[in-house]
Every structure is written in structure tokens, then in C-alpha cells.
Design a protein that fits this description.
With 280 residues, the protein is of the alpha/beta class. The protein has a single domain, classed as Rossmann fold (3-Layer(aba) Sandwich). 49% of the residues lie in helices and 15% in strands. It has 10 helices and 9 strands. Helix 3 packs parallel to helix 4.
Length: 280
């Protein structure tokens, strides 16, 4: 039985991942910034009789909060698996976002993940065992318009993960990057638009058309993928007999990544614009 710490568990991938590991018999420390939002997880936990899920407060923006949660999570047993899931998305053209909005994007998605990694890695390294999963996105491979800062934060997380893979794999610690496409979670409902990105923005109308066009790829038939698939993919990645660094999840993510891999940028851009009928 593994001791698993998951961040961002109030909803979405985090909550589902906590339940997935618990169903398999692991001890799960399900963390979130505001434990008053734990109702949905606690209800699901009680319904499934998953007594091996414990809710802890952890704010990835606060170093003291991270250290306190990791210390608490390590009391009964060392942390075997960290799932770095907490994150947010800033929706904005590059021009419209303020410095403070961009800083919050990177502080959460990049520095937030780093705070938790730094808190758990020394013990894993000393034991010569442990797994760290960083939840990225297809945006970590392809940067869409009006989502450039989110993509940049995920691409930074990808670079950090790749470097860390080389650094700690010889020490017995495994790094995993999970790259989901579009899924039906509360995360999308919580996307934060820049204050200046509204109907008066020069970019508003074109961004609306892009979103409509993009749904033709990421939401075939008007329905997003089942987020449970991501939780299952995270669990399976930890136990993969042929371990990899990166795991794409979702048909849209796999399609976009495959096309991007095969084409140069100009050809990829042309193919995407034609596919979405978005020519300007």
C-alpha cells in the first residue's frame, strides 16, 4: 500500500485521482487550499466507504502551508507518490494581461509545483524510492492563442520535469508528466480571464470565434472526455511496467501532439486552421 499525496483535490482531476488511488487500497492525503470546499470529495469518500482518504489543507502559494502538509502527510509513513495537480488557467491575449495576473499564473502552476516537489524530494531521494507526477496539459506541447500564459506555465513545468527526470532517476525517484486534452471538469468553469479581456478588448470577437472552432477538435459531438480517464491514466502511469516520462490522455491531445510532431510549424499552423475553419 502506497502513501499518496495529491494537490488540488476540491474537484476535477485531483478529486478523481484521490478516489482512484484509494479504491486500489492506497492511503491518500487529499489536499486543497480551502478545506471548506472538501464537501464533494467527502461525500464521495463516505458513499464509497473510502476511509483511506484524509483531507489536508495545502496552499501551493504558501511555502509554510506546503511544509506543514507534507510533514503531516509523512507522519504515518513516507510519501511514496506525489501528484502535483493544483493549478489555474489565465485566459487572455498576451497584450491584455497585467504583470500581477501573469505572476499569479506562474506562481501557481510553476512555483507552486516546485514548492511541493522540494518538500517531498529529499525524503524520496534518501530512501532511493518515490514517484512524482506533474499534471501538465496538451498546452504544454502546443500553445493556443488567448491561452499563451497558461501554455507557457505548462511548458515550463514540462522543462522542469524533463530536467528533474535526468537528475533524480539515477537516485531512484521517478518523474511522470501527464498531458490531458479537453475534459469535462470544474477546472474549465474556473478559468480566470484577465480583467482587461472583455467585450471591449480588440481581441474579444476573434477569441470567441477561435473557441467555437477549437471545440470542433476538443469536443467531438459537443461532449468533453470523461475526466475519470485522466485519474485512471495517472494511476496506471505509476504502475506502468514499461515506464515513460510523458503520457498523453485524450484523443484530442494525442491527435494534436501527433500532428505537431510530424509537421514543421508552418505546416502545422495551416493544418490546424483548415481543420477548424479558422483562417484569420
Amino acid at each position: 500500500m502506497a502513501n499518496v499525496l495529491v494537490t488540488g483535490c476540491s474537484s476535477g482531476f485531483g478529486m478523481l485521482t484521490a478516489r482512484q488511488f484509494a479504491r486500489k487500497g492506497d492511503s491518500v492525503l487529499a489536499t486543497m487550499r480551502d478545506t471548506r470546499k472538501a464537501g464533494a470529495l467527502e461525500k464521495a469518500r463516505d458513499a464509497e466507504k473510502l476511509d483511506n482518504i484524509k483531507v489536508l489543507q495545502l496552499d501551493v502559494l504558501d511555502d509554510a502551508s506546503v511544509k506543514k502538509a507534507v510533514t503531516e502527510a509523512s507522519k504515518a509513513a513516507p510519501i511514496d507518490v506525489l501528484v502535483n495537480n493544483a493549478g489555474l488557467e489565465l485566459k487572455s491575449p498576451i497584450e491584455d494581461a497585467t504583470d500581477d495576473e501573469v505572476k499569479r499564473q506562474f506562481d501557481t502552476n510553476v512555483l507552486g509545483a516546485l514548492r511541493v516537489i522540494r518538500a517531498v524530494l529529499p525524503a524520496m531521494r534518501k530512501r532511493g524510492a518515490g514517484t512524482i507526477i506533474n499534471v501538465s496539459s496538451i498546452a504544454g506541447i502546443v500553445a493556443p492563442p488567448y491561452g499563451g500564459f497558461y501554455a507557457a506555465s505548462k511548458q515550463a513545468l514540462e522543462a522542469i520535469s524533463e530536467a528533474l527526470h535526468y537528475e533524480v532517476r539515477p537516485l531512484g525517484v521517478r518523474i511522470i508528466v501527464v498531458e490531458p486534452g479537453g475534459f469535462a471538469t470544474e477546472f474549465r468553469n474556473n478559468i480566470q480571464a484577465a480583467a482587461a479581456f472583455n467585450e471591449s478588448s480588440l481581441y474579444w470577437e476573434r477569441a470567441e470565434r477561435f473557441e467555437t472552432a477549437m471545440r470542433g477538435i476538443t469536443v467531438p459531438g459537443g461532449k468533453r472526455g470523461d475526466p475519470e480517464d485522466v485519474a485512471i491514466a495517472i494511476y496506471n502511469a505509476v504502475h506502468d511496467p514499461e515506464p515513460k516520462l510523458r503520457y498523453l490522455v485524450g484523443n484530442d491531445a494525442k491527435m494534436i501532439a501527433d500532428v505537431r510532431k510530424r509537421l514543421d510549424f508552418e505546416s502545422f499552423e495551416k493544418a490546424m486552421r483548415q481543420t477548424m475553419n479558422w483562417q484569420d
